[in-house]
Predict the structure of histidine kinase.
Amino acid sequence: MNETGLEQGQKTRGSRLRPASPWAALLWLVLAWPAAAQDDIIRVGGDLNYPPYEFINERGEPDGYNTELTLAIAEVMGMQVELELGHWQQVRRRLLDGELDVLQGAVFSPERTRQFAFSPPHALINHSLFARRGEAAEVTLAELAGREVIVQRDSIMHEQLSQLAPDALAVPVDTHSDALRLLASGRHDFALVANLPGLYLGRELELSNLEPVGHPFPPHRYGYMVTKGNEALLARFSEGLAILKNTGRQQALYDKWLGPLESPGLPWKKIGLAAALVSLLLLLGLAAIMIWNRTLRREVDRRSRALERQQQQLLQADKMASLGILVSGVAHEINNPSGLLLLNLPVLKETYLDAEEILEAHYHRHGDFYLGGLPYSRMRDEIPAMLEDMLTSADRIRRIVDDLRDFARQGPGELNETVDLNAVVATAIRLVDTSIRQASHHFEVSYGEGLPPFRGNGQRIEQVVINLIVNACQALTNPEQGITVSTRYLAGAHELGLEVRDQGRGIAPEHLSRLRDPFFTTKREQGGIGLGLAVSTGIVQEHGGRLEYDSTPGQGTTATLTLPALKGNQSDHQ
């Protein structure tokens, strides 16, 4: 067998099955007669990374819906097949060169019929545009102009993208996995991939920041493909496929591999409405009987709510304690490699500076040469900057880890520290930097100069500041809205002030007075339990301060934290 171009592929062989009964043996002889006349093994190609249709499994063997379907067709038709999976552009080229006889999964298109012939479809393929979560809504073909779209090289989507969206900037890659990983890493704008493989790989690779944002193409017919002139072989696969469809075996394979991903699930909303209607009818029928125990029921409800609040408080406390333990362990594991980087990078920098004179002399004597795969004339400017960037990034990792560890550390709750408000705010901003960057493109911070310290617990005030900033991020409806954080000294009252202002959706007047109530929240559907601002209010009151809110619906909210400054020489801070 010729195995050119299959460096990363795998092959497997299916053999004929010999029935035991006389009638089955006779049927087998009839079906197997054309194959017995020729000893050639049919070479079937496929994509090595197109789950759940076809892929290489963890044992290094071909697997998936297409693979099992091909083996089942070979069984009922008495054929011997050898499966060879590789990169799509390679197996397609090998089919054209005659090194493969048939491809088990290919999308039909009128353009492809110039070179290929297709069997009746055994599936329909939908293709989706994927984007990073929160960066795009429903996207059409017209909106792809000038945008970078990652697509599998030589696939049907690569062909149709160039035809139907010629102004899009195609970025070809070898596999769907490459496309999704590249998009998830922050590169390019979209990935155009088959819908089920995209969902399957997103789940298997844990790419939780991706989501489908458009279906710009209609479903495509998906079946077996041969080169022109090989229609006789295609007819045998089509006949086997028809047998499997008529016996229900093809549907069983389809349900096994594709059913779990396509299943829409139970209509919970309709079930809930029906249950509510039934409950209402039952309540109306039992109303007369239940009037006498109304007082008792109200008392039971009141006590149940009290117990539920206590349970939620215990769960939240346990969750925060577990988070602290987790952060401490992760911080220790990150600090080791970070410390190694901070130790070795300065040595590498000095080493390069020592070698620079030798490299320059060689450059002037012999001309340009390659260093690390790039011309030295370029690398001599790049390497110092790269080393400096790595050193800066490693130091940033160390600072963030230290901040997380300090925030998670369980310490005494005494209010006996001398705390710098500006330092607390800076630490809090570093900890929620990712949330800020995802929520807004316009974040500003202004630190008051010469602020006096305050007496209290810096870690607990840091918790309050984090809560205020995160609430501001969650209040924004789009990244173009801004958040402003500022600190100042109120000389007349000898107080410190922190203001967190957002341009978000605002708070309704009837809710503004209830923000400090435990378990009151306007974000119940997003998982909020209403403890953040209540806990923050308690912390601020322990410090002798105030936490006030001013909001206009549709325009934004301003949260103001006021703390008594540490008494001293006031002129130093005015």
Summary: The radius of gyration is 33 Å.
